[in-house]
């Protein structure tokens, strides 16, 4: 039960089959009810009840659908085709609406039509629509899906009583119309003027909503029930001037989580109370498989009926469809985009709903899943554990309390408290002030203290869950509150969940603005903008830019900073400059003797050692390019400290990186552990830090804030020293925080820039390009070198990388395939295995393989000779257990069989794996194990690794420069990149929701110079693309410069060049207490625009002046018309200004009233 994802709509053909089927079904129903009506007009009101009783009837919603007269029409296929081609028949619109607005009416072969946007389809002379030559954005489609168990249950009920489906559909449509569309309207915008500089909130929007009930089945199974809704937000908005514009939906799309919360908050209670369904939480995939989390700690992402409602054989049978999705996603859970792709457009069935219900009924009856069994489980008397509602007065008190805290911080302590009478005992104890007694009673009451502690713990647990899921220190109010509501709906009444989310937000979240944006809003924050239009524009933009963080995050970052700041003069770990130089020279001498040749540190390595050994303080940072020899310098630091009696230990966020450092720097195994294991040992007291201990922590750019905070707390408490090593440009922390970057900016740090991993100098230069975000030059270089392969399809691309990998004579331990997603990794691994079978290097006989389930429920088949990768740390099944670490790789070399005395059959019970680190381990095959194929892995798995040859398969969802940099810097000798035309097409499909390319912007600017019109919104790909399509005849081609094969992949190259550094609170300015009301005022102003819109001020129709020989008269007439326009504009601005200011005054008055009510009437005294 969630908003799965959204996508740009290119046409409306997808829903046309549903219209055709529904119209046929409706006509049959009309024929039964009205047998004498031969050719019924479906727009006739007498048929309305039949149409509305069809559960698959599409619905139009949003106030603009009413204004355009669409609400009063039968929503037919013709109407849908009109809308998706950019028109509405003018005959639909009432005279009143025509008078009130300024619609453009066009004479077309289809009659008089109102153009919904400038980017409309052409109409043939016979009235049919021409298919556009290029894609155009007609809207944004949001897909809301219900759970698997709910879908199976509804399918069974509806197979005998279709009214159930109709009732569910009607309730869902009500939720969309009454709650979700209004929420979208708050963020709906229109952008006009050059570069879309002028922003206004849309006055009205509209959408079409469709219900579907199925997913296409697999090759071996029929379609499975899947109840879901397509909410198609059309690309049209009504402006305050009564004109229709293209809708800017960027801010709407950013609030997907809010729509999930609204959907759950308003739809689930109806399903519980009206239909008797009981829902259980569905946990986030990464939390569900985390054995260290309890159910209370796991994040809830959705709700579904419990498994106990559905017979296991039904879930198994219809679950094959879900397994297909999981298989395609590599067994790690499908992300939203994958789930959408597998469950939507290209995967629909051609079955009619009637045929599907008949099919499902037969299957479910055979499994014993009956309507009677469902009805026994229905519960119409459900209550939540927490149903006590917070009153409006309490919410006002919460706001007042926050306001008082802000005033206390500014002016000092002021208490508002009800006085208590003074008794003789009080007087004898020296308590004579009624307010002091009241204060002591409140502060010292054990019950009050205990209740507050428990409440604070519960609140913090919810905040921690949000931060673990959100993975950034900054967020919007919508993101935070939506998440809290989703978590509380399981145990709280919906209204209480909403109010609790508001309370926790007010209590825990702090308002801030990025430092890059702060200068832009100086005038607005100071209240110095005098022009009302400019002030409103600043207010709109400010509302988009404000971010929040939690008090805990701020506290953690400040404690890390202040802890090291207080120790910056600590000289315990610092040697003199001369001593440090001697240590460096001694290390070079030892290495020269060991290697039998002269060894000299690079300049960067030398500076890093000198800084670490000679500078005061408890923290030092070493930054180094991938393959720059950081580990070699760390070995020197380790040996220097150990020679002076210090103990040095090694750690890193991943086991692979930690043990890689341990191997390179010659640490004993007992002194090496992953960061998570080290922190666990420190927390439990199994390991103690001392004042003579140095921690070398590698790959710390990947460490999250929580782990860094825990580590630093232990380091400072013991008086130890931490040396953080890494690079901000490599893969960022999976969780929130940018502590490594902040520490490098504020404390001692040195950078090692000399790359030496790559054998070829030119390759080292290309790695540097990737690190600096200049992927274009590197990709074109590798193409000319023959190291970029472009295939037609993704399947061909996968086959090609498998073939190249196996033709490489390098040992498998020294070569690796890196891919962007788990799905691609799984596809490549399977392709390599199939090729190995074809070559006879793996057996193609099923009896030579065993089936093994991993720790996440995904099954794979293994045989002797397979490369494997372990995805989790565990102990082997040897007699003397050995430690196997996450990301360890190896080869299966033996199976162990055992005779079952009962069945008299021999079966494989264990397999022996030769690890690449030299160990051999036995693994029990009779229980789930964290094991996958090991020919390919994700980029995250490869960070910190070095291979002779590397193969990189970028994903269509490639994230950033950081991912590309790591993937393209693993090799010593050769690297190869694999692309496909299919991938390019997918990137072009995705890009409309992002930024336009530089080439697109350059073309748009050249065209605009010729047509001298308004530039489109330069932040929107779809707006720029529509503008280019509209002016295609102005685009000039240069026949002398043929396109380069990589030109089509500029989207992926652009992403390879984009830095997406994790944020820290140090990157923001916190909003002053006296300015925090501006955020609330901006929200109130937008709500005021929606609830009390200003009157439409239509622009006067200006006719072009007739050319005349008397230029003076023409110029005078032009001047007069301009003056009239200016007068109209001034009038409109005054009306808007008055309305906004009135609403702000009302809001301020409401706040003041709430403050006054909260004050005790009896007395008010300052202490």
TrEMBL record:
Highest taxon in the source lineage: Bacteria
Biased composition (Basic residues): 1100-1112
Gene3D superfamilies: 2.30.30.940, P-loop containing nucleotide triphosphate hydrolases
Region (Disordered) residue spans: 1090-1167
Biased composition (Low complexity): 1113-1128
Protein name (database record): AAA family ATPase
SUPFAM superfamilies, alphabetized: Origin of replication-binding domain, RBD-like, P-loop containing nucleoside triphosphate hydrolases
Positions with biased composition (Basic and acidic residues): 1130-1140, 1156-1167
Classification via InterPro entries: P-loop_NTPase
Family matches, as CDD domains: SF1_C_RecD
């Amino acid at each position: 039960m969630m908003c799965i994802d959204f996508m740009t709509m290119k046409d409306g053909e997808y829903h046309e089959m549903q219209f055709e089927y529904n119209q046929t079904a409706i006509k049959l129903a009309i024929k039964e009810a009205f047998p004498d009506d031969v050719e019924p007009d479906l727009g006739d009101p007498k048929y309305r009840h039949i149409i509305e009783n069809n559960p698959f009837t599409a619905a139009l919603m949003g106030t603009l659908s009413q204004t355009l007269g669409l609400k009063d029409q039968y929503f037919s296929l013709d109407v849908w085709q009109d809308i998706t081609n950019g028109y509405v028949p003018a005959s639909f619109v009432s005279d009143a609406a025509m008078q009130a607005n300024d619609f453009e009416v066009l004479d077309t072969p289809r009659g008089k039509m109102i153009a919904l946007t400038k980017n409309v389809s052409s109409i043939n002379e016979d009235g049919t629509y021409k298919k556009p030559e290029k894609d155009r954005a007609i809207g944004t489609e949001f897909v809301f899906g219900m759970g698997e168990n709910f879908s199976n249950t509804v399918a069974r009920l509806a197979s005998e009583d279709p009214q159930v489906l109709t009732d569910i559909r009607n309730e869902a449509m009500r939720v969309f119309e009454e709650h979700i569309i209004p929420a979208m309207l708050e963020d709906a915008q229109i952008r006009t003027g050059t570069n879309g500089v002028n922003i206004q909130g849309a006055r009205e929007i509209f959408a079409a909503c469709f219900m579907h009930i199925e997913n296409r089945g697999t090759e071996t199974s029929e379609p499975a029930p899947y109840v879901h809704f397509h909410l198609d937000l059309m690309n049209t908005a009504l402006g305050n001037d009564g004109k229709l514009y293209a809708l800017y939906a960027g801010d709407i799309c950013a609030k997907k989580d809010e729509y999930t919360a609204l959907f759950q908050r308003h739809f689930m209670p109806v399903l519980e109370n009206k239909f008797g369904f009981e829902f259980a939480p569905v946990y986030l995939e990464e939390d569900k498989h985390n054995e260290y989390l309890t159910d209370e700690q796991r994040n809830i992402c959705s709700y579904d009926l419990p498994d106990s409602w559905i017979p296991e054989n039904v879930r198994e049978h219809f679950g094959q469809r879900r397994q297909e999705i999981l298989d395609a996603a590599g067994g790690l859970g499908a992300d939203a985009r994958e789930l959408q792709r597998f469950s939507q457009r290209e995967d629909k069935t051609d079955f009619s709903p009637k045929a599907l219900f008949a099919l499902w009924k037969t299957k479910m009856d055979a499994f014993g899943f009956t309507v009677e069994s469902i009805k026994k489980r229905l519960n119409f008397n459900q209550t939540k554990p927490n149903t006590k509602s917070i009153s409006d007065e309490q919410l006002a008190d919460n706001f007042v309390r926050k306001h008082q805290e802000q005033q206390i911080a500014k002016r000092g302590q002021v208490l508002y408290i009800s006085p208590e009478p003074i008794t003789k005992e009080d007087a004898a104890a020296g308590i004579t002030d009624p307010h002091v007694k009241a204060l002591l009673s409140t502060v010292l009451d054990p019950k009050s203290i205990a209740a507050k502690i428990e409440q604070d713990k519960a609140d913090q647990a919810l905040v921690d869950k949000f931060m673990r899921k959100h993975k950034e220190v900054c967020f919007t109010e919508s993101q935070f509150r939506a998440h809290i509501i989703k978590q509380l709906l399981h145990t709280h009444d919906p209204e209480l969940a909403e109010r609790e989310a508001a309370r926790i937000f007010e209590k825990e979240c702090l308002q801030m603005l990025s430092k890059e944006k702060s200068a832009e809003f100086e005038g607005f924050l100071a209240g110095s903008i005098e022009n009302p239009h400019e002030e409103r524009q600043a207010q709109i933009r400010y509302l988009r830019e404000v971010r929040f963080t939690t008090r805990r995050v701020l506290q953690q970052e400040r404690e890390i900073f202040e802890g090291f700041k207080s120790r910056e003069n600590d000289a315990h770990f610092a040697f003199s400059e001369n001593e440090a130089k001697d240590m460096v020279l001694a290390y070079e001498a030892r290495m020269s003797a060991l290697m039998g040749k002269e060894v000299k540190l690079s300049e960067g390595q030398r500076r890093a050692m000198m800084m670490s050994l000679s500078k005061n303080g408890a923290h030092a940072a070493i930054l180094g390019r991938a393959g720059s020899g950081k580990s070699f310098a760390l070995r020197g630091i380790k040996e220097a400290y150990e020679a002076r009696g210090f103990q040095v230990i090694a750690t890193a966020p991943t086991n692979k990186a930690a043990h890689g450092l341990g191997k390179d720097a010659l640490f004993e195994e007992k002194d090496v552990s992953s960061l998570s294991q080290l922190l666990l040992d420190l927390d439990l007291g199994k390991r103690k830090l001392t004042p003579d201990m140095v921690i070398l922590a590698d790959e710390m750019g990947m460490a999250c804030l929580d782990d860094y905070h825990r580590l630093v707390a232990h380091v400072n408490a013991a008086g130890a020293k931490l040396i953080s090593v890494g690079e901000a440009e490599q893969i960022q922390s999976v969780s929130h925080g940018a502590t490594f970057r902040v520490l490098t900016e504020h404390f001692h740090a040195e950078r090692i820039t000399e790359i030496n991993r790559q054998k070829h100098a030119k390759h080292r230069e290309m790695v540097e390009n990737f690190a600096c975000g200049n992927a274009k030059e590197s990709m074109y270089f590798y193409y000319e070198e023959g190291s970029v392969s472009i295939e037609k399809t993704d399947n061909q691309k996968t086959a090609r990388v498998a073939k190249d990998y196996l033709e490489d004579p390098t040992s498998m331990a020294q070569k690796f395939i890196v891919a962007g997603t788990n799905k691609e990794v799984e596809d490549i691994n399977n392709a390599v295995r199939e090729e190995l079978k074809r070559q006879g290097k793996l057996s193609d006989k099923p009896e030579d393989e065993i089936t093994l389930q991993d720790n996440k429920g995904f099954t794979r088949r293994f045989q002797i000779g397979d490369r494997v990768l372990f995805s989790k740390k565990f102990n082997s099944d040897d007699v003397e257990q050995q430690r196997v670490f996450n990301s360890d790789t190896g080869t299966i070399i033996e199976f162990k069989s055992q005779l079952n005395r009962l069945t008299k059959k021999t079966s494989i019970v264990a397999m022996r794996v030769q690890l690449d680190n030299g160990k051999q381990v036995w693994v029990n095959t009779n229980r789930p194990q964290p094991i996958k194929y090991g020919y390919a892995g994700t980029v995250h798995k490869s960070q910190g690794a070095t291979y002779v040859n590397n193969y990189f398969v970028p994903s269509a969802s490639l994230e950033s420069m950081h991912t590309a940099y790591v993937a393209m810097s693993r090799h010593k000798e050769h690297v190869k990149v694999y692309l496909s035309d299919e991938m390019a097409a997918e990137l072009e499909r995705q890009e409309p929701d992002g930024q336009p390319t530089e080439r697109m912007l350059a073309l748009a600017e050249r065209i605009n110079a010729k047509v001298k019109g308004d530039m489109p919104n330069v932040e929107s790909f779809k707006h720029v693309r529509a503008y280019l399509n509209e002016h295609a005849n102005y685009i000039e081609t240069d026949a002398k410069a043929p396109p380069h094969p990589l030109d089509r992949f500029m989207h992926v190259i652009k992403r390879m060049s984009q830095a997406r550094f994790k944020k820290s609170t140090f990157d923001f300015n916190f909003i002053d207490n006296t300015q925090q009301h501006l955020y609330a005022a901006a929200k109130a102003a937008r709500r005021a625009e929606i609830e009390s819109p200003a009157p439409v001020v239509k622009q006067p129709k200006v006719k072009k002046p007739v050319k005349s020989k008397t230029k003076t008269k023409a110029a005078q007439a032009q001047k007069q018309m301009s003056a009239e326009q200016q007068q109209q504009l001034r009038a409109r601005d005054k009306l808007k200004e008055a309305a906004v200011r009135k609403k702000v005054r009302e809001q301020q008055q409401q706040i003041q009233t709430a403050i006054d009510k909260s004050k005790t009437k009896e007395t008010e005294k300052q202490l």
